[in-house]
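Progress note, project year one: complex with adenosine monophosphate.
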Amino acid sequence: MPTSFEDARSLILDHIEPLPSETVPLLESLGRALAAPLDAPLELPRFDNSAMDGYAVRSEDCRPGVRLTVCGTIPAGGRPEPAVPVGGAVKIMTGAPTPPGCDAIVPFEETDSGEELVTLYGPVNKGDHIRYRGEDIALGSRVLAAGATLRPPEISLLASFGCQSVEVVRRAKVAILSTGDELVEVGEPLDERTVVNSNSWSLAASVKELGGEPVMLGIARDNRDSLLEKLSEGLQYDALITSAGVSAGDRDLVREVLDELGVKQHFWKVDIKPGRPTAFASREAVPVFALPGNPVSTMITFEEFVRPALLQMMGHRAVLKPLIKVALAEATRKKPGRVQFMRVAVSSGPDGLRMVSSGDQNTGILGTMLRANAIAVLPAERDDFAAGEAVDVHLLGPAAALLAS
Ligand code: AMP
Ligand code: MG
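Model obtained:
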């Protein structure tokens, strides 16, 4: 009995343990997952400061047309002095600490920019253009959860806190093995029977895109000895991904040899299209993803199954891409029974997002993958979809990887 898409994904995620953590220099943490929650060691801003170039004033002295005496200047990085006396103003630059007595900033453009006396044009309210100490981030508040993906904003925050290094979950070393008697490596001579091993490259690129370390083991041939040797080697890493040799053909021996190596199989065959023969297994903490060999199926099953698993292994909290509803520009149909991953091109139209099929959905057609920027997830039980119907889609590529699920 094939497993449903949802059950297959849950079974996988139930078997994935996070790797240990390590401390890395701040910039090296980009795209990685924070190992432990972070409470603010400092408040931000650290002192009351001006949000504009202008004059620090006492709001009670101010009304349209009033003239104030300019008593000094505070540059960014300057000390918060002189204090603002009654009827006075102090020139102040953006980011400079507000001086005693000041409770509002009047931007230059709302004044005549006078040097000794300054005339205010409009009304002034208490608190105008002041960034108060701690208003952004309070001391001790929980600012980042364990498993937060470190993007430029998180790195900015860590830098503001003075962190030169950060504890993140270690990168997964992921073994990649292609299988098949017909395969040759890139650069080897070709003839009419051979197929270039492209799957190792798409898988390695996908692993790398997620922040993992791909280890390409090359090609195992469709025989027991070759598979035994290469699969045992693959089991020494944090995870193993194989492609091909997992369907029902005479020489599809991957599952049999995994079994011989004591790898426990959790499912084989999923109600999806493409990617039906996918198998998932594990030995101790090492997950094994046996993906179908067709290059399009390999990429789509990586996207749907392996990607969330590796993200979870590398400590990320958000591992599933958010599904967004996008309207189909054209009617489409499928057979009921399996979830269909339709390769689509999403674009923005006058009424929001729209999408079209990116081409022939036959799994042999790589061009359809090249033109796709998203995968539409068509539910198993459905058959006909009308033009204009909105269906679930997730975007392809790394940017979406960082969004919460
Ligand atoms: P299989 O799952 O072994 O039946 O392979 C399915 C199809 O994928 C066949 O047409 C294979 O030639 C092709 N294929 C298998 N492995 C690779 C690979 N590593 N790179 C490119 N194509 C492959
Ligand atoms: Mg094969």
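Confidence is low (pLDDT under 50) at residues 400-405.
The CA atoms of residues 60 and 298 lie 70 Å apart.
No further modelling is planned for this target in the current period.
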